[in-house]
Write a structure and sequence with these properties.
By secondary structure, the chain is mainly beta. It is built from 1 helix and 38 strands. The longest helix has 7 residues.
Length: about 450
């Protein structure tokens, strides 16, 4: 392990071995760091010359470099972290790349280049093949106003990917067409946008395939799309505990089945804690607190107030239907059961048929392994469609549905669990389904 030092009063001709021998630029120290090395950066502003500036450390993901923002220039190694942070200012005409496998501790601010031309982006891990990156507290500013400038995780080609984590991330954009371009896998805690900047019309632009999670984010300024939809880049994004704008579109219009899949849990406009949603090319599932089953066994989000899942088909067909997320329940019986889910069609008294709406269920019915079976009440291929079963719940057992409604239930074929464990069920729709509400409770287990 080698320790290196950087200060705003140092010289890149120094050896970087201590504060009195410190480098002037973070690039100098960054480029020399290798596996297990530590780079100590004195708090302050480091202004870079114009041009494309790549910071590349050679550490491995199994033994990354450690980079610290400190306010202690007395001790070697330092004993305290910075509170004001390290500012890397790209100044005019600068493209900033931060490559390698590294973990950055303490507040860091990275400012891209100014101007109206492209090539002013901030790239994290965009050069070499693989990256493992962590920032504890990062602020990124994209002052260049060209629409192509962005904050990028990973590269623009399929050969550059990585694992990116952020303890806190704040971003300031300078044009509504800018955004976060992601490739690889990422996790962002406490994502926020600087209110003094421009708010992107699409926050996440999926340049290539990505899998990501945003936790505890303040996204309340984004009134457009959280995730751009019109892309053929297979990606899954998860948003948990995020504050939203009232007009936000979670995912834009998707043009093909390879487009983004978005999950949202406990993401809402105000102090609401029951929201859940799932979106893909074929359809979506959202929560309704206005139409719901009200009997004793119905789903409730706080023990008292009811909710339902509204399952919608957009591009769903019998050949390629939309599958809702799974509904889970722990079951400790080993007798034959016929699980079912109550549903209502609000606005039409016509029953849905088993080639339009059906149930899929998995059960632990193997006596010797953890393998289960998947059963369904879908119409048999090449069969004749039949109406789904009339529900056990009627008009008095539902709240908020239209005066014209069909009350039904989706009934699984009989299953005999061989082991105690979870039953999992999901609702499947084919066609332009817009009026189906599901009580997300697996019944019929006795």
């Amino acid at each position: 392990m080698t320790d290196r030092y950087v200060t705003t009063t140092g010289l890149d001709t120094n050896g970087g071995t201590g504060w009195a021998d410190a480098y002037l630029t973070i690039k100098k120290g960054w480029d020399l760091t290798s596996s297990g090395d530590r780079l100590f950066c004195d708090q302050g502003t480091y202004t870079l010359a114009a041009g494309s500036i790549a910071h590349t450390c050679t550490a491995t993901d199994a033994n990354p470099a450690q980079i610290f923002a400190t306010n202690d220039t007395t001790n070697e190694p330092p004993q305290t972290m910075s509170t004001t942070g390290v500012i890397i200012d790209g100044a005019a005409s600068t493209q900033l790349d931060f490559d390698g496998n590294y973990s950055v501790f303490g507040p860091f601010v990275i400012k891209g280049g100014t101007g109206t031309l492209s090539g002013r982006a901030v790239d994290l891990g965009s050069i070499s093949t693989y990256h493992s990156v962590y920032f504890e507290d990062l602020t990124v500013e994209i002052p260049g106003t060209h629409t192509a400038n962005a904050l990028k995780f990973g590269g623009a080609s399929s050969s550059v990917y990585g694992n990116f984590r952020f303890g806190s991330l704040s971003v300031k954009f300078s044009h509504v067409s800018q955004g976060i371009q992601a490739y690889g896998r990422f996790e962002i805690n406490n994502l926020s946008l600087d209110g003094a900047g421009s708010v992107p019309t699409a926050l996440f632009e999926l340049a290539n395939s990505a899998s990501g999670c945003v936790l505890n984010g303040d996204l309340s300024s984004v009134s457009g799309e959280l995730v751009t939809g019109n892309t053929a880049k297979p990606s899954e994004l998860f948003f948990d505990n995020c504050q939203l704008h009232a007009s936000v579109t979670p995912v834009g219009t998707t043009s093909n089945a390879a487009a983004a899949v978005v999950y949202m849990t406990n993401c809402a406009v105000g102090d609401v804690h029951y929201e859940f949603a799932h979106y893909n090319f074929f359809g979506n599932t959202t929560v309704s607190a206005s139409i719901y089953a009200n009997d004793a066994g119905a789903a409730k989000y706080d023990g008292t107030n009811g909710l339902s899942w509204k399952v919608t088909g957009t591009n769903a067909t019998l050949a390629q239907p939309y599958y809702s997320p799974w509904i889970n329940v722990y079951h400790n019986g080993t007798s034959a059961i016929t699980p079912n889910i109550e549903v209502v069609r609000s606005g039409s008294a016509t029953a849905y048929q088993d080639d339009e709406v059906w149930l899929e269920l998995t059960a632990q019915d193997n006596t010797s392994t953890s393998q289960g079976s998947l059963v369904s009440d879908r119409m048999t291929p090449l069969g004749t469609p039949a109406n789904q079963t009339t529900g056990a719940l009627g008009a008095s057992d539902w709240t908020g549905e239209s005066a014209t409604a069909w009350f039904g239930k989706l009934v699984s074929p009989s299953v005999t669990p061989a082991e105690i464990g979870h039953l999992r069920a999901r609702v499947v729709v084919a066609g332009a389904i817009t009026d189906l509400y599901v009580d997300p409770t697996i019944r019929g287990r006795t």
